[in-house]
């Protein structure tokens, strides 16, 4: 049986160091993260000189605009999560993958494997979308594999002998559906008898990107107020845990309906509204959370952030959540009645198939 691999290749500007990786997305299953593996190939001159070469896993967290930085103030933190010496080789037990074994045979004696374990409490890859004309670095969490030559892993790397390849830490949807979301809210009115009742139900808790969300709405008007229209929204919640007041929301899909309205006292209304949250309808909006690098062609809305517990919440740079919000409009004097239901929006776990092509990035 012949097994083929899709390989990413990147070469340093001086052509002395080459990095090979068979994937750039690594799955976080909450309790553990897939190991980051690859091959570093050195030129004969570096091997003869016995130059030290290191590979590092870098987490870059930008939490403010690059244009606002002044007088030494930086809104960016760069963390070295893992640092390993690739050459000269260290005596460390390493479980090689099939891709590494094949590349070692093909690339010769100047090829050196590496494996890095990403901490499970590290945040998922997510950035905040910028305006089209903004060329500065986006706010968010990004990961890089860095390979460089130096005297130590703390040495300042030189651009000509350094490789940085962007990777993503991602989460896929769980295999089991949760409890069906349902909520019931009531509102009574000062100096008016009776109350207005709003019940909202979703057909399931877990949705995939691009999937249609069915919102079941039931209104029972036992008050003397009149319901003039109904509005349903999908909101993306973003919590930047570094700031005390770093929470905000974006409405990424919405729909209004006056069908069945005005709803008079003593009447009831039951209807289903459909919404599809996607990035295509929000591609020009700044502040929307998207997955990984926004310049990547396959970017989508950021998935819901799944965390093991609230005690690990502070380790995540940006936490993304989603909710459906239904609002009843009662006019200027009656006010509004709102109901909110959280849900999970994620990608299904794909079946990884080996691919024959080799992709080169310079």
From TrEMBL:
It holds the Pfam family Arrestin_N. Residues 192-350 form the Arrestin C-terminal-like domain. GO terms for molecular function: G protein-coupled receptor binding. Keywords: Sensory transduction, Vision. InterPro entries: Arrestin, Arrestin-like_C, Arrestin-like_N, Arrestin_C-like, Arrestin_N, Ig_E-set. It comes from the Eukaryota. GO terms for cellular component: cytoplasm; rhabdomere. The keyword RNA-binding does not apply. GO terms for biological process: G protein-coupled receptor internalization; negative regulation of phospholipase C-activating phototransduction signaling pathway; photoreceptor cell maintenance; sensory perception of smell; signal transduction; visual perception. The keyword Transcription regulation does not apply. Belongs to the arrestin family. This is Phosrestin-2. The gene is LOC119640465.
